[in-house]
Write a structure and sequence with these properties.
Blueprint: E1 4-10, H1 14-25, E2 31-33, E3 37-41, E4 45-50, E5 60-66, E6 74-77, E7 83-87, H2 89-99
Parallel strand pairs: 1-4, 5-7
Antiparallel strand pairs: 1-5, 2-3, 3-4, 6-7
């Protein structure tokens, strides 16, 4: 599988953002943690939205790559100070389940894994 671009945005209104981005992407999110977080994994994009303390709504939280060849989660900053992450889908699932244990998020084998 090719790498998927990961974009993480901050939002104030998860429900409104889910409706908007679902229409833009033509699909529902793979996961919604009610009122806090949503994740879409399309064939070439990994998009997450989150209410994030200290990050104004509508702002970029970070960029990255979902890459099946990533052996571990890593991150660094580019020349402009933007955080870039690199991870496999199961690393992201582990992080989601650590932050929100009730999510019980499992990576769908058909969604690029």
């Amino acid at each position: 599988m090719a790498k998927k671009l990961h974009i993480a945005l901050s939002t104030e209104d998860i429900a409104a953002s889910v409706a908007d981005y679902s229409a833009r992407l033509g699909c529902r999110p793979d996961l919604v943690v009610e009122g806090i977080y949503a994740l879409w994994r399309t064939d070439n994009l990994n998009l997450s939205i989150r209410q994030a303390a200290g990050v104004p709504p509508g702002q970029l939280r970070h960029l990255g790559w979902e890459d099946d060849e990533a052996e571990s989660f890593s991150m660094d900053k580019d020349v402009n100070g933007i955080t870039w992450e690199r991870f496999a889908a199961h690393h992201q699932a582990d992080e989601i389940n650590e932050i929100w244990p009730g999510a019980n998020y499992q990576v769908d084998a058909g969604a690029g894994e």
